[in-house]
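Question (not urgent): is this output format expected?
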Amino acid sequence: MTRIICLANSWKHGDRCIAGINEVNGNWVRPISDLRDGQIPKEMRHINRLEPALLDVIDIPLAKTGPDFGFECENLSILPGKWQHVGKVSSSFLLKYFRDQAYILHNDLRFVTVNYMQSLPRENRQSLQLIKAVKFTVKMVSQRFEGGNKWEGSIVTAYNQKLTATITDPVFTRRLDLGYRPEKACLITVSLSMPWRPDGWEGDDPCWKLIAGVIELEEDIIY
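Got this back:
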């Protein structure tokens, strides 16, 4: 079993993408199913019929390797067995895993190309990052086919790094639909999508930066 702090449970092809940090070594982990793009169906991810929530500490049966789709380094294949909920942490507990980097996922654009990722050593093909946003604003951009609205978030860090990206955190977008707006500093999981070329796209295949999990910072450690 591999123990992670869940930092993303986001939409992926009608199912979900789960990701988190291994609390022992601080490495990112993205469990991958044997479906085409590795998305995780509910019968695999549910724990006592409940979705893994952000800040949950969960044990997942994982292999030591997994398909990287040619550009990701965090993926581990899911093995047979039940997922287990073993605890929960506060948002402030996560601060020890936060590391400032020069960019939000490799550059100051909204995407990273597959060719660029493949030019890096495998261990540097980072497709998940924990960002501390000192300012985080949201905007509704359209309606989703599955109901609810599609939202974008704009991140500003203490070092004036900026990113505007689609929000794929279902729980957070539901709160936005109900009128909630973030007011505190946030820890945000930014993830790269699978390659997707918009109509008329020219150039290398882009992987789009997504806001996959949003956690407002609190004070007390509860785990």
